[in-house]
Structures are given as structure tokens and as C-alpha cells.
Amino acid sequence: MGAPIAAFLTLLLSLLLLRRLVFKPVAPGIDGALLDGSAIAALNRDRLQQLEERSSAMVLDQHLLPLPETSQQARELLIELTRLSHGSSEERSLAMRTCRAWGDRRCLPLLRRGQRDLSAPVALLASIALEVFRGEPQGGYLTAAVTADDKVSLPRNVARMR
Q1: 144 or 110: which carries more pLDDT confidence?
Q2: What domains does the chain contain, in order, with CATH numbers?
Q3: Which of 53, 96, 146, 154 could form a disulfide with 158 if both were Cys (CB 3.0 to 4.6 A apart)?
């Protein structure tokens, strides 16, 4: 009587082990097709294409403020952009378009404020303008961390301890 039960348990255990070894375990609640690398790459390509289409659809030939050539003009433009960002919806839209065309890091506070704007077109323009600043800094992380005297600066958590 004990032999058939032992044989059944052995068969059951071997089937469970075979299932574990042959079939890849999938996280519960996640479709196995979503874990495929090619599907993720296709989603990334689709997202990149949508961003390119959206940015190319935006017409940059619209009325913009003149872009600066000197540091004095840059300060004046930043003051003007700050003033425009507190104006009407059209003025805020003009400020976001000019920030996008200028592409300077000094516009980041204005663009971040523009993302939270009540007007949807202004928020969209600010989001598109911020796409340039996402990702790795120009020249890489090491060149971004070099100080004026060509020494690599310490990370913030280390620099605060000294």
C-alpha cells in the first residue's frame, strides 16, 4: 500500500522539478511577453518616434524673442522671460518657446514652473523643452563634475561631510 503512494509522490515531485527547470518562472501578474527584450525595445523605439514627431510638429518659426549673443543680453533675456512667465497664457507660451529655442540651463527653473502651468499648451511646451536636458550631461558625467581648477569634485554627500 505504501509503494503506490511513494511512486505517486515521486512522480509529482519530478513533474514539479521538470516544470521549474524547463519553463522559466514568470512573475505573478506580469505577462510573459512583456519580459521579452525585443518588445521593450519596440516600445522604446515607438516612444522615441512619437517624441520626434511631436517636436518636429512644433513650429519654431513662430514669434520668438531675439536670442542673446553676449552675457549682458543673456541676463536681459532671462529677466524678460521671467516677466513673461508671470503674464498671460500667450506670454507664458512665448516664454516657453523662447526657452526651448535658447536651450540654456539658466531656463530650467522657468521650464519646471511651466510644467506645472494651468494652461495645457504651456505645460506641453515646457515638457518638450525639458527633453533636451534629460539624460547624461554633455561631455559625460566626469567632465560635468570637474571644478574650475581641473580637480574632480567630490560627490555631494562626501562634500557635505568635510
Answers
A1: 110
A2: 71-133 (1.25.10)
A3: 154
